[in-house]
Amino acid sequence: MAADEEKKVVCPPAGAPAWMCTFADLMSLLMTFFILLLSFSEMDRQKFKQVAGSMEKAFGVQKEQRVYGSLEGDMMISTGFMSTPLAVKLQQSVEEEMAAELESGAAEMEMGPEGLVLRVKDSIAFELGRAEIKERFLPLLDRIGKIVAEHEALVTVKGHTDNIPLTRGAPFRSNWSLSTARAVGVVEYWSEKFKIPASRMTASGFADGVPLEKNDSAAQRARNRRVEFVIKPSGSAVVFKGLTESVNSSAIK
Q1: Could you read off the pLDDT of 39-67 as tens digits, one per residue?
Q2: Longest Cα pair distance anywhere in the chain, in angstroms?
Q3: Is this structure's pTM higher than 0.85?
């Protein structure tokens, strides 16, 4: 009888299928490729530490204080987090402190490739041909120096003159020495009053080498006689100073 006939069972061939060999070879080659990539790679430890530190500050790693009970959601990320770069904060601070001088035209400010450039007219700061700082210039210097000190910024003080040679018998031999002496006088004042380290200050004199206008008239020469302050953040570690401030001030209670 056909119903009683045993069904024929077809057994698969012995051993792994043929496609398995190709697949295994492919996996072996991929593993070898990634091992070679890993062996040739180089890890920048310093950069890794900086990134890890930034993430730790951003998300507030809990190390010392234990928190019992349920956490409040507003402490997962600091509510005081500020992503404003320090360069922008510096500009805002200078704008606030120098508002009166900027409005009156006694000072000018712009953001250049070297940083924030603040120009102050020479008539406010020094007498003609002299390097002694005027008394009326000191309060303004105090405000600028306080910003530099508080933000731990780098500052370059640049002295500029017009193209008129100094008269015979003047305290300085040329506009070179005069412009340099003025810049040095400013950094020395800040060094004594605010204890700003020398590593964050630079003084330089340019004589009439970098004029803003042609020295063709008294008004143009007056504009060229100036003191410039180039202010910029001291490094990447403090670019987001607001981040550090916010983390410190928002410790878990």
Answers
A1: 777 666 666 776 666 666 556 555 555 55
A2: 137
A3: no
